[in-house]
Every structure is written in structure tokens, then in C-alpha cells.
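[audit] Reproducing an earlier prediction to check determinism. Same input, same settings, fresh worker. If the C-alpha cells differ from the archived copy the diff job will pick it up downstream; this log only records the rerun itself.
[audit] input (91 residues):
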Amino acid sequence: MEHAPERVDFNRGQGRNVILGDACDTEFWLKLRKDIHLELVILAMPNHQGNVYAAHQLRNFGFDCQVAAIARYPEEVEELSALGSVRPTHV
């Protein structure tokens, strides 16, 4: 998922399955079908709270996939790790 249309087009051109959306938009999660098969979600939003929100939404809506997220500070790594299914990467 990507929020910038030009990046969606680029990634689709590279053969990736990318959808346009905003992970911080509640309406997006309400519209997303739970039966979409996701293997891996990488949360790389510049705002830590956005990554945490998206991780919670993935869990709340029952998606069973690996989740990786970026983190800038040790406390962000700890918060994301506490979510269980998220593997934070310290950058």
C-alpha cells in the first residue's frame, strides 16, 4: 500500500501488487477486505504513531501476516516489539 499515486504506478510497473491508500485513514481499514492474502507488510511511515496505528489495525482486522516496521529510537523499537507480530528495524 502506498499513499502517493506516482509511487503506486511505479511499483505496479515493476510487477508489484500495490494498492493506493493511507494506513492512517480509518475508512481505508473499513473498506479493506479481510480475505486479501498478505504475506508481508512493511510499515515505513515517517511518523512512528502512524506505524503503530497501522500495526494495531492489521491485528484488529485479523490479518495473519508478517509485519516489519522502521523505528528511530529504542523506545519505538520496544513499543513495536510489544505488539507481538511486528519486527521493528532500528534506523
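[audit] rerun output stored. Observation attached for the diff report: The beta strands are 40-43, 66-71, 86-90.
[audit] end
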